[in-house]
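Consider the following assembly input.
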Amino acid sequence: MKGYRNYFLNKLLWFLVTLVAAFILNFILPRLMPGDPVAAIVSRLAQGMSNTSGVQAIYEQYAEQFGTNKPMLEQFVLYMRNVFQGDFGFSFSQYPRTVADVISSSIWWTVGLQFPAIIIGWLIGNTLGALAAYRRGTFDKVLMPISIFVSNLPAFGMAVIMLVIFAVTLRWFPTSGGYGFDLIPNFSWKFIWSVFIHYQLPFWSIVLITIGGQAIGMRSMSIYELNADYVKYSRLLGIKDRKIVGYVFRNAMLPQITGLALSIGTMVGGALVAEIIFSYPGLGSTILTAVLGQDYPLISATTLIITLMVLLANFLLEIAYGFLDPRIKAAQAD
Amino acid sequence: MKYTIQQIFQSGKFITGFSIFMTILLIVIIYPLVIPDPPLKIIAQGTFFEPGIYVNVYDSINTPFYTLNLDEAADRRIANRLGDEDRQAIKEWLVGNGMPEAEIDPANTEQLLDQWFNNFDPTVRLPGMTNADRNYYIRLNNNIQGLLNTSGAVIAELDEETAVLTEKATVPQSAYVNVNDVPNVRVLPLGTDNFGRDVLTELVRATGVSLQIGLVAGSIATLIGLVLGLVSGYIGGFVDDTIMFVTNLFTVIPSFVLLILISFSISQEQRGATTIAVVIGFTSWVWTARAVRSQVISLRNRDHVNLSKLSGHSITHIIVRDILPYIASYVVMALILQISSGILAEAGLSILGLGPKTTDVPTLGLMMNWAMIYQAHILGKWWAYFPIIITIALIAFSMNLMNTGLDQVFNPALRD
């Protein structure tokens, strides 16, 4: 266990560094853009107002609220303090709800949907990919073209196709929402069942997309491993196929974990768009309403939360990788 | 060089991908030459017209008629005009009148009408039938009688002053027009969209714009990635550390989030297709930089590079002459992938409502966004969204195939 300490500390340090970078980017990007965001907001609000002193008053009020009239550094300190207090201000489009309130009501839908979907898609995809590499033949010939085509479908495309087939044509599942529109969230069987039914389509469309990409990667990894010397030697020794496949799977899986860590951001992005297709009440739909309502505080907070989630997922994957790869343990023990 | 190209074109995967891509590209180039309509022109009054051939009714009346005596014409006309609801109503009445349900087949028009004429009696009051229902059946009966009428339709002209209708012509039921004679026929192979635009024309233009966005975004990303990767990999040391730090940062911070933040900060009016492409390019160079760097590191200490160093060539010279040719194939493959992911990124952004401004040009993402906002998928208007998904998937698929093909040519270890 001691050997891991440096590895974990190293990863934790990197996690904190990226976290700070994420805060800075989230703060600085909108402010780097040409044009004054407050002026843009005020000009939208004050459309048709002819009273210049009124417009001026609105402008000053918003400038005060965002602190844009203060120097950059002071603004940043203010921003960090607010973030750590969980205070993101009021949402423009859903006033008088606060941004923190809007996000806390949608974040669990997204976490509950995407986390299991990506994990399960990853597991199924890797198993199928390894099987395809090991069996070759018809299984491989059928599975691979399908996987390649599916992995090239954008996530929202898969979502629309699933929606049209299973919700509109077959009517097995509802078309939109996270639960029946006639229900109020509570702990009754009826509500849980409704959530479960609404969960299926978004869940499976993310799973299917993930399967496609993972299966292809795992297949080529496994083919590469199957040609390795240790496999030939094991075969020569007469070790059972099942056991060899176990070794191969474990070795081929390590790059796949790194791959997942590197691509999780893209996956989450795609899945957020898929959420919109199903009007799932998660962060994806929150972004859409924020964009449509020109809700600057909400956008800023939502993107920050998504970044935090992705960074955290990345960190956890790195930790898991440390446990799975014996080379890391060996390297740290030296 | 010639040999490499020959080898590339022997790879089945590359050829398949290349043909699909070239077909798409050719359609994008040739279609506007044949049908030069502006893609965003609203031609239809109303939303989501079904795909089909639209023949001008007014013109077809003034076109010479041909008489064709076709046996099945009358049956088809009646079958077409008799809606599902009416058939169900007929069945209900017949069942109510005491006919066994098994004998009635609402899909069989001829039998159904026979049964109806033999049994229907307007004076009969079925148990439980309201007066409104009875009147409905009488109306239905009259309608069906009218359908069976064999006299033609009269075309009349309205005299503006006296408001008297004068008969101009009679159109018998066996009259046909040749579509070639009608001056105004519009083929809408994919119908119209929610704004009443021709979907096919729009889609072709959108594909072109999206390909351009992909090309611009991909080129920018590849260029930045290439330069950073070369510098970082070849020079090493502090420069490498700095560049790798930034690269690692942007690998974990999702580019999607950066895209949203930047696009949102640029106001809608200033967000042209080019701006979006540039923004996508500037947020997606990370992969290329990492990959190029690792390639360069493995090349850095090769003999020919060392020889070049000893000969006193400048860093630029070494990078351009001794390293670039070795990673050129790799860069081309990275570019192909970047183009296809740029197209996908634009589509994702547009669905979020952060795409290019809507008044200029259509893009695949914008078309998808419109179809989703107007609920084409729920309303069953497949032509408004399905061709777009297929186009995006085909572009990505063809690029991926080309990439895999190239990979197999350049990395013999991957050949099956």
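Residues 56-67+152-188 of chain B form one domain. Ask yourself how this observation constrains the way the partners meet.
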